[in-house]
Amino acid sequence: MGFYFMTQIKNLNHMLEYLQDLEIIKDRKEIIYLDLEYAFNQCHQRIGYNSGKKNIERQLKKGQIIIYGILGLYEKAVDLSLFQRDFDLAKLYASKSFIDTKMKKNLWLKIAKEILNQPFGRRIENKEDNIKICLALLDETKEILRIDDLLPFFPDDTRVEILKNKLCESLKSYNSRITNLKDELTEQSKNAEDLREKFRKI
Questions:
Q1: Which residue of 11, 49, 141, 160 has the lowest C-beta tally within 10 Å?
Q2: Does the model's pTM come out above 0.90?
Q3: Where are the domains of the chain?
Q4: pLDDT by residue (tens digit) across 137-152?
């Protein structure tokens, strides 16, 4: 009954704070005392009652996103966040430490594609802004995304100048990894030769 009253218009901020507190408790692997299916459905019903009231709908949708997060349904949380054009919330759930690397990469790629698909009007600068925002994800995702993961999604007429810095960083990173691999191979070859030499002396 308590959650029912939280979904009333005047209590929506309190509802979001309550759900965020529950999410923290769940992340600590503690028991939470809320029927999450009931809570999700209450948000859904309230969205129906308040159809057309964008701010109220947005708050209730955010409640559903948090519930998805509590349930560990991070892909659904990201999808609904993107549907709401809430990129910060999408990034929050895509970066959860509980997600395996493969799924995390797929979620970040979804975010990148949505950023690139944002309406940019007629001004070419706006389209390039979307590309720059997308490139900034490379810094946010550390080693999860690379520039070559994003290249297929950029428009064909993307100017190389926009990509130049990230491409150079990527090349440096590849060269560094190649150098490290060569060093490892050299060390392994030396160890193998030392071992063969010991056997010859036996």
A1: 160
A2: no
A3: 1-71, 95-158, 163-202
A4: 888 887 788 888 888 8
